[in-house]
Amino acid sequence: MNPLGIATTKLPARSVMGMAVLFVTLIVFGFAFLYPVLRVSARLDADIAREKARLEEQQALAGYYAAFKKLVDQGLTEHLPPARTVPLPLSRVSGVSALFEACATASGIDAVSITPDPDSLARGAKSLSVRVTLRGDPETFRGFLVEAGRIASLETIENIRIQRVSEGFDYQVVAWLALE
Predict the structure, then answer these.
(1) Are 159 and 172 in contact (CB under 8 A)?
(2) Is 12 exposed, middle or buried (0-12, 13-18, 19+ CB in 10 A)?
(3) Whole-angstrom Cα distance, residue 58 to residue 73?
(4) What Å distances lie between residue 167 and 24, 110, 164, 170, CA to CA?
(5) Beta-ladder partners of 176
(6) How far apart are CA 171 and CA 3, in angstroms?
(7) Which residues contact residue 157 at a Cβ distance below 8 angstroms, ignoring those fewer than 6 apart?
(8) Which residues pair with 111 in a beta bridge?
(9) Strand, helix or coil at 63?
(10) What's the rounded Cα separation, in Å, for the pair 53 and 98?
(11) What's the predicted TM-score (pTM) here?
(12) What's the rounded mean pLDDT across residues 120-126?
């Protein structure tokens, strides 16, 4: 008892030291086991966010896919007469960019870049590869493809890449033109 008559209990210093060591040990082991779990959780959250964004993009494009699939299933292309390819004279190769620029302007899509591939000419081929990068919405891109199909020297469109960007969609088209 103390002088005021109140009973007090004092913990021995050794017990206090043992409890402090135990407390610090529990905190260290807690962080040692919790930190990897939190890191994995953060990585999984990032993966989930990325997959959600991909899913939203696919859902946004699903309507266009269904419309294009419906057109293909209807077989509209079977009723079109085959286009006769008229080779482009070598003297007009320098104006290839203007041909695709006119198609882009007529369809209302922005032409970001139009790059003829000079290597395709260097190999002595009878075709010229042209890489066209466009920006706009899918309807105007469809109009561009229709306009490009009217180019008499167009042999084929080899590749179309579509990428969603903040301004809409970017389209990369690789087209081959027949040469004389």
Answers:
(1) yes
(2) exposed
(3) 21
(4) 54, 11, 8, 9
(5) 129, 156
(6) 90
(7) 145, 148, 173, 174, 175, 176
(8) 134
(9) helix
(10) 37
(11) 0.56
(12) 75
Residue 144, judged by CB atoms within 10 A of its CB (0-12, 13-18, 19+), counts as: buried
Instruction: Report how far apart, in Å, the C-alpha atoms of 101 and of each of 1, 35, 46, 104, 133 are.
Output: 100, 56, 40, 5, 11
91, 85 Cβ separation under 8 angstroms = no
Distance CA 150, CA 144 (A): 10
List beta partners, residue 132. 114, 173
Residue 37 and residue 58: Cα distance in Å, rounded? Answer: 31
Q: What was the pLDDT predicted at 93?
A: 84
Strand order in the sheet with 127-136: 110-117, 127-136, 168-178, 154-165
Mean of pLDDT over the chain: 86
Q: Which two tokens stand for residue 55?
A: 């899913």
Q: How far is CA 30 from CA 22, 24, 26, 56, in A?
A: 12, 10, 6, 38
- The model's pLDDT over 3-60, given as tens digits with 9 standing for 90+, comes to 666 666 777 888 889 999 999 999 998 888 888 899 999 999 999 999 999 999 999 8
Element (H, E) at 135: strand 127-136
